[in-house]
């Protein structure tokens, strides 16, 4: 302990107190020294300080559980539902019940009338070809809803010019009749689509615009309503049928105008190779020169002698576009046969193979 003693003989400015002992040393009340002041004599010690008592902090929940007694609510405890008929007499109870039912019915009726007054109704004028079912489908209602709204029975007939009540604004009715909607201030693609029970993607695709495109007030949008889409599809199919019929008639007319003669023959294909002709594959039987790309045929000799075909005759081969020219003739052993020239394309000739076709000239 002597090594840790602090020398207090030197005083500095501001020194008010000198404690040469650390806090770990024994607390003493009085000290004395021997004659040569080298030895410390403790005459009396003080008792060690009491340990500090720590106070534990508890939560409100712990305090409530330990110190507060929570009892069940007595407000509704033990109550018993007493029927109204027991409080009132039987006659009074029946009267009270009838009054309550009447008041409830009147409330329901008033609410229905209020709803009807809130819903704005427009008019639709029946045109030729309309049926009650088609009108209901056009405005996306059921037949029953439309009939009940206009007081029509199942067997009631409708007539051209008759006006029907539709539970929509007149502007909505006009837009759904024409299929065109004029953009108003504040309209967005989503709000317009929701208004007519459509999807924004369907609306944008139908009008060929992007879903993120800004809408210009006053511009017209076409509405892809179900009945309009059905009409367009029917129109497309009708036009396709007419187009095919016209093409067929044109083909038949071309064949009729081209010539009155027709004959079913066997058609094969050949190319300008020595294995299929002779040593001079680009020289035909009449001595004329042929080259790839020419639309010519070789015909059996009976077609020349018996059926009136000649060198240079124009023919139509059934199933092939355009006209072909008789530019070559086949070996005498073939009858009612033609050979279609396919240049030097062996693969194409093999794919053609042997077919039965009608020859027109």
Can you describe what's shown?
The protein has 361 residues and is of the alpha+beta class. The protein has a domain at 259-360: RlpA-like domain (Barwin-like endoglucanases), CATH 2.40.40.10. Helices cover 34% and strands 17% of the residues. It has helices at 60-67, 84-87, 90-118, 132-138, 143-149, 170-178, 189-195, 200-206, 226-258, 301-305, 346-352, and strands at 28-33, 40-45, 122-125, 163-166, 180-182, 220-222, 262-270, 296-299, 314-317, 324-329, 337-341, 355-360. The protein has a 6-stranded mixed β-barrel with strand order 7-11-8-10-9-12. The protein has a two-stranded antiparallel sheet with strand order 1-2. It starts with 27 loop residues before the first strand and ends with a strand. Residues 1-7 and 21-26 have low confidence and may be disordered.
Task: Offer a concise description of the structure.
With 361 residues, this protein is an alpha+beta fold. It contains eleven helices and twelve strands.
């Amino acid at each position: 302990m002597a090594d840790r003693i602090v020398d207090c003989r030197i005083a500095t400015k501001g020194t008010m107190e000198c404690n040469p002992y650390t806090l770990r040393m024994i607390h003493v009340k009085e000290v004395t020294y021997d004659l040569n002041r080298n030895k410390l004599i403790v005459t009396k010690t003080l008792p060690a300080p009491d340990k500090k008592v720590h106070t534990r902090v508890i939560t409100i929940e712990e305090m409530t559980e330990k110190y507060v007694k929570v009892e069940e609510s007595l407000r509704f405890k033990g109550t018993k539902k007493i029927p109204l008929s027991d409080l009132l007499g039987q006659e009074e109870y029946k009267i009270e019940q009838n009054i309550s039912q009447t008041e409830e019915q009147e409330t329901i009726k008033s609410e229905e009338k209020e709803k009807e007054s809130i819903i704005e109704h427009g008019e639709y004028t029946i045109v030729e070809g309309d049926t009650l079912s088609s009108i209901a489908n056009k405005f996306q209602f059921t037949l029953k809803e439309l009939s009940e709204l206009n007081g029509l029975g199942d067997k009631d007939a409708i007539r051209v010019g008759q006006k029907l009540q539709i539970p929509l604004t007149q502007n909505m009715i006009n837009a759904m009749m024409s299929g065109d909607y004029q953009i108003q201030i504040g309209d967005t693609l989503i709000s317009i689509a929701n208004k007519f029970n459509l999807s924004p993607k369907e609306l944008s695709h139908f009008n060929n615009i992007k879903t993120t495109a800004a809408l210009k007030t006053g511009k017209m949008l076409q509405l892809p309503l179900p009945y309009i889409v059905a009409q367009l599809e029917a129109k497309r199919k009708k036009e396709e049928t007419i187009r095919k019929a016209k093409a067929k008639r044109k083909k038949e007319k071309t064949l009729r105008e081209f010539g009155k003669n027709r004959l079913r023959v066997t058609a094969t294909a050949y190319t300008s190779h020595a294995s299929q002709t002779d040593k001079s594959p680009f020289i035909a039987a009449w001595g004329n020169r042929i080259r790839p790309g020419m639309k010519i045929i070789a015909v059996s000799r009976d077609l020349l002698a018996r059926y009136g075909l000649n060198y240079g005759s124009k023919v139509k081969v059934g199933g092939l576009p355009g006209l072909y020219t008789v530019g070559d003739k086949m070996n005498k052993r073939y009858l009612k046969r033609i050979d279609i020239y396919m240049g030097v394309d062996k693969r194409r000739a093999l794919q053609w193979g042997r077919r039965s076709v009608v020859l027109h000239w």
